[in-house]
Amino acid sequence: MALLATSTTARGQDRQVPGGDASAEQPSAARIAKRIDHILIRTSDPERLFELFAAGFGLPIVWPLRSYGFFQSGGVCAGNVNLEILAMPGGGQEATTHLYGIAFEPAESVEASVRLLERAGWPHSPPTPFFGTRPDGTAGVIWRTVPLPELQPPSSMVFLCEYAWNTTPRRQALSRQLASEHGGCLGWVQVESVSVGYRDLIQARKAWTAHLGAPAAQGADTWHLVDGPAVRLSAAARDGLLSLAVDVRSLQATQACLKKHGIACERDAEMIVATGGMLGDLRLQFREAAATDLAPGTRPARDDSESSPGGR
């Protein structure tokens, strides 16, 4: 959970980001992270936003919106990843709805990823547990997080998140449900990528390469993991998570759905960009999916249990 992924050890805080030549001691994509588990959307009106994504857009509910003490959380299945609707106090942007965080699933285990971070000298903290009720009704640890501070822009979260049970069966079932319902009102297929902007793109590229290995192509600044959404870096006037690129079945149907819910959008022949209204500062870029991505489970989402947040 993002809220519990904020502390880091002092070790490595002054460490220089490695250059273009990867050290043998640096973490690699195959070992640090398997996929994006969930993407966090922060808002001051979680009830309204959760209702929009679940009832309005028709994305299957992964876990219901409820209070977890000092934060509220609810999740929906976005085809190949979960979206977490999050509300919590503090932060400079809490009054608006915006992209807030990326949670990666560890490739093997959170302990193995921490050992690799330690070996490479990157700042990290021990895995932080969150306690609650598991899907089987027992009490105990439900997830553990480890922040990745070298990757996260200010006022954002980028972290590893590991659950205490196998979430794959539920993930696959919800992905099939979304496909069987033709992607709901928007015709939603999957999240193709999440875009992260940096003023210092060169430094950011070095940090992401050191943590996730080389990008998909030379100069592309795009990282494809085992499955799920890609991560794309771009130069920006401010550091932060910029947008989600979403594959849909039909731009015409997507535009009609957005209009129905009073969300302004701009369209050209290949893309619809939606922001404002109930979306606030959240920016969604819709493109028509390739035929190969329309089959259920083509690029599966990370799933969860209904009782616990975050794909939980």
Explain this structure to me?
The chain has one domain: 2,3-Dihydroxybiphenyl 1,2-Dioxygenase, domain 1 (Roll), CATH 3.10.180. It is globular and about 50 Å long. A hairpin with a 6-residue loop joins strand 10 and strand 11 (230-235). With 312 residues, it is an alpha+beta fold. The chain contains six helices and 15 strands. It has helices at residues 29-32, 46-56, 110-120, 168-180, 201-212, 251-260, and strands at residues 33-42, 61-67, 72-77, 82-87, 98-106, 128-133, 139-147, 157-163, 188-198, 222-223, 230-235, 240-248, 265-267, 272-274, 284-288. The longest helix is centred in the middle third of the chain and has 13 residues, at 168-180.
State the distance separating the first and last CA atoms. 10 Å
The number of distinct helices, counting runs of at least 4 residues, comes to 6
* Rg, Cα atoms, Å: 18 Å
- Briefly note the CATH topology name: 2,3-Dihydroxybiphenyl 1,2-Dioxygenase, domain 1
Bin the strand percentage.
25-35%
CATH class bucket: Alpha Beta
